[in-house]
Amino acid sequence: MATKEEYTIKSRIWIRTKNGAFLGFGRVALLKKIDEYGSISKAAADMKMSYKKAWELVNSMNSQHSSPLVIRKIGGKGGGGSVLSAAGKNAIKVFEDLAQKNDDFLNDRMKEIQFDDE
Amino acid sequence: MATKEEYTIKSRIWIRTKNGAFLGFGRVALLKKIDEYGSISKAAADMKMSYKKAWELVNSMNSQHSSPLVIRKIGGKGGGGSVLSAAGKNAIKVFEDLAQKNDDFLNDRMKEIQFDDE
DNA sequence: ATTCGTTATGTTTTCGAATAAATAACGGAA
DNA sequence: TTCCGTTATTTATTCGAAAACATAACGAAT
Hints:
Two copies of one chain form a homodimer.
Chain A: E1 8-17, E2 20-23, H1 25-37, H2 40-46, H3 51-63, E3 70-74, E4 80-84, H4 86-112
Antiparallel strand pairs in A: 1-2, 3-4
The first copy, chain A, binds a DNA duplex through residues 39-42, 49-53, 55, 72-82.
């Protein structure tokens, strides 16, 4: 015990409104999968997430933006499906960019720090 | 649904080693309470955390640093107690400083961004 | 040796979140 | 009008983490 260790910093960021979480890592990952498959159910299956959970997340995101991030179609050819709106695609881009910048910032700061002076 | 919203950014940071979590918000809060009370059990009670949980967190932190952050005394006058080492006090300072800088950074970036162009 | 309040540690119980299951609704196509 | 695979929604079940509980160990003081 108590040997000199190497420390790394981790972080999670998320964007919220007064009504709760809006975008986070999981939500953005879901958006990307929906974009890939054109289907909420396929996206959920791919992420090993229940369809119900995915549906709730989509609902939450859509209801917290002036226009829906995910456009859903019920019934019809192939049973329906879902696609991302321009706002949906933009949300992915903005969030990932912010997350990347934040990681860079933290890693830079971490270099300057040492806990363990031995 | 879908009215224009105000977005805020939140974040959590934590420091880890290859053995798992080392410092995070909860752990630092615990360190501060131990410093305040001179007792793990009193700190735990104040935080409405079980003593066992607090003890495990202290153990985890101590074992991931070259010298213990919390110095424990079993038995004796008053039954014993615990105090922070210099390393423990430093850990609080370093972590809180980093968290603050990160918050500032994110809030600045957030000002430049808008999701919702209406 | 007894007392005291703490640290130390194993065991049991509880609780809520996540998952799974079940069912309905939908609408284009054949 | 039947079929299809999706979205939509409610209800039931499972599971694991957290809390609660229970005891032991400790050592200075009296």
